[in-house]
From TrEMBL:
Gene3D superfamilies: Neurolysin, domain 3. The lineage of its organism: Eukaryota, Viridiplantae, Streptophyta, Embryophyta, Tracheophyta. It comes from Vitis vinifera (Grape). GO terms for biological process: proteolysis. GO terms for molecular function: metalloendopeptidase activity. This is Mitochondrial intermediate peptidase, mitochondrial. InterPro entries: Neurolysin/TOP_dom2 (IPR024077), Pept_M3A_M3B (IPR045090).
């Protein structure tokens, strides 16, 4: 994730005090304000984690249905997982990894970003109405 370091640097008072100043007085951001902001941020950490998990489940369900469900122990399935997905580690863009593994459609462009296809997860959970328009990430 490109912004993972930014998450930490942008919330550390030692970093913020170097540049975060009041627009008219030039006064450095108060440490108590940063602590308060950090508290508010932590309040929503569970929601952030849940969203990251919901997305992981969507990818896992799609990979299972499109690649593994028919014969999860086949040589072809194992080889595809190893050569198209696992062996690249962090050296290849995740979007390319997923598309190479299961084909087009696992990710869809929407509102200037990408959203995972969650029809496989909806099928797995036996949800009858599961349209892409309901996704909020």
């Amino acid at each position: 994730m490109k912004d993972s370091n930014q998450r930490y640097y942008a919330w550390d008072y030692r970093v913020l005090r170097k540049f975060a100043r009041h627009y008219s007085t030039g006064e450095v951001i108060p440490e108590k304000l940063v602590e308060s902001m950090q508290g508010a941020r932590k309040m929503f950490a569970a929601t952030d984690l849940q969203r990251q998990l919901l997305v992981c489940q969507m990818f896992a369900a799609t990979i299972w249905q499109k690649l593994c469900q028919e014969d999860p122990l086949s040589l072809a399935t194992g080889t595809a997982l190893r050569t198209k997905f696992l062996e690249h580690g962090g050296a290849k863009d995740p979007t390319d990894l997923l598309t190479d593994l299961v084909g087009d459609g696992i990710l869809q462009s929407r509102d200037g970003g990408i959203v995972p296809d969650f029809t496989s997860l909806c099928d797995e959970l036996k949800l009858e109405e599961c349209g892409q328009e309901h996704v909020v990430l």
